[in-house]
Amino acid sequence: MSADYADVLECLARNRGVRGSLIVSQTDGLVIDANLRIGQRGDHLAAFAATVYRRTRAAAGAADLGTACFLQLDAQNGYICAAGSGDLVIVVVTDPGVNVGLLRAELLRAAKSLR
Amino acid sequence: MRIATGEPWVDAPLQRFVDDARARLALLLHPSGQVLAQCGFTRAVDVMSACALAAAIHAAAAELGRQLDGKPFRELHHAGLERQLHLAQADTAYGSYILLTVFDSESSIGLVRVFFDTFAHALAAATPVMQRTSVPVFGSDFERDLSASLDAVFRVGARGRPPSDPSADESS
User: Fold this and answer.
1) For residue A10, which of A74, A110, B142, B151 sits 20 to 30 Å off, Cα-Cα?
2) What is the ipTM for the molecules in this complex?
3) What does the alpha-carbon distance between residue A96 and residue B57 come to, in Å, rounded to a whole number?
C-alpha cells in the first residue's frame, strides 16, 4: 500500500464495526488500495461501489441537488458507506451496529485529506 | 441488445454478460479469428475485420507475455476517449475463446472484468460435450467455414432482432 492511502485506510479500520475499506477509482471501478479481511472480494466491491457512487452523483445532479458527497447503503447485515474526492472514492463496509454518524465524519475527513 | 450466434449454447452466457456489463459491442471468437457470436454489429464486414484484428492482437499479446513473463497475457484493456475495449480469453473444455467487449461511460473496466469472470465460468459450464477434432484451424476449408459462421451469425441476428431495434446502429 502506498503510505498516504495506507494511513487513510488504517485510520478508518480503527473504527469499531468497520470490516474493510478501499480506495477506488470512480471512473474505472478498480481498487487503488484496500484494507480487507480474507475472503472479501475487493475487485467486485470496488466495481459495484464505484458504479453506485457514480450513478448517485449523476442522480443528485439531475435532481439539482449539487454534488453528492456521502453515500450510505443500508443492507440486511451492514452498511456500505462511500465518500468521494475527485476521481477517488473511499468505500467502507461495516457491521450493522456501527456508529454511522462518526463514520460519516471520518469518511468525509479522509476524503478531504486525499485532495 | 440481442445476441446473434451460430452456436446456441453461447447465447445465454453472452446475453447475460452484455446486459450485466452494459457492453455496447461484444464479439466472441475462436483464437483463429472465426466468429461464434456477436452483439451490436450490423454488418458482416465489421465483424470479420473485428475478428481478424482481435485474434491478431490477442496472439501478439500472448506472445509478448510468453517472452516477458514466460506465460501468455490473457487480458488486454485499451481506454479511448469515449469508448474502451476489453479483450480476454475464456477457457472451456472444448478450447479457448476470445471475448472482445466495447463499452462506454455507462460501464467501467472494473465491472466488465467482474462480469467477464462470471461469463467465463458460465461459458465453461454451458459448453456441450463434444469430441475434440484434430483438424487444423487453418485448413483449406477455413474461408468456407468463416463465411458459414458469418452467415449463421447474421441469419440468426436478422431473425432475432426487431427491425426498429435502436441498438442496431452501434457499429456505424
Assistant:
1) A74
2) 0.84
3) 48
